[in-house]
Design a protein that fits this description.
alpha+beta, 6 helices, 8 strands
């Protein structure tokens, strides 16, 4: 599958499943930097590192746009690998590997974190201390998350990991 920047149209990389010859979208490093500038002059990655808990930022397509080191450690992946991934792919939800992929299986309709993110995106109202469970296929991962809509993106703060 070809990962293409949804802003400039540039090819970013190949991603799983490699045998699929369609395009999917993310944001390339050149386009994300201007988007992630803060009003106070800090880049988003610098700002994210002020949190001691995992924080993951999803764009309007529910794709990973940024994460702090704690978030990357939680996902056990480098930023280059998770950039552009759908949330369920990055968190290794077992249902994201089914036909249709993350967000398009029968299981996704009742997915707590997916619905929480979509609700935050639509209504732009923060949600706090929501319990979620993700089935990775290797076991269940339980978290408490809070979501905040800011600058067109949903910020997910993971706690009680």
């Amino acid at each position: 599958m070809h990962l293409i920047c949804s802003y400039c149209g540039r090819y970013i990389k190949e991603k799983e499943p490699f045998e699929v010859s369609r395009n999917t979208h993310g944001i390339c490093p050149d386009c994300i930097i201007p988007l992630l500038k803060q009003d106070n002059g800090l880049f988003y990655d610098e700002y994210l590192e002020t949190f001691d808990v995992p924080v993951v930022i999803l764009d309007s397509q529910c794709r990973v746009a940024a994460a702090n080191q704690a978030g990357l450690s939680m996902m056990k992946k480098p930023i280059e690998r998770v950039m552009g991934m759908l949330g369920g792919e990055a968190l290794e939800c077992r249902h994201s590997k089914l036909a249709g992929g993350c967000g398009r299986t029968v299981h996704c309709e009742t997915c707590t974190i997916r619905n929480l993110i979509l609700e935050t995106m639509e209504h732009k109202i923060p949600k706090y201390n929501q319990s979620i469970t993700i089935d990775t296929g290797k076991g269940l991962s339980n978290f408490t998350v809070s979501t905040i809509f800011y600058d067109g993106m949903v910020h997910i703060v993971f706690e009680n990991i």
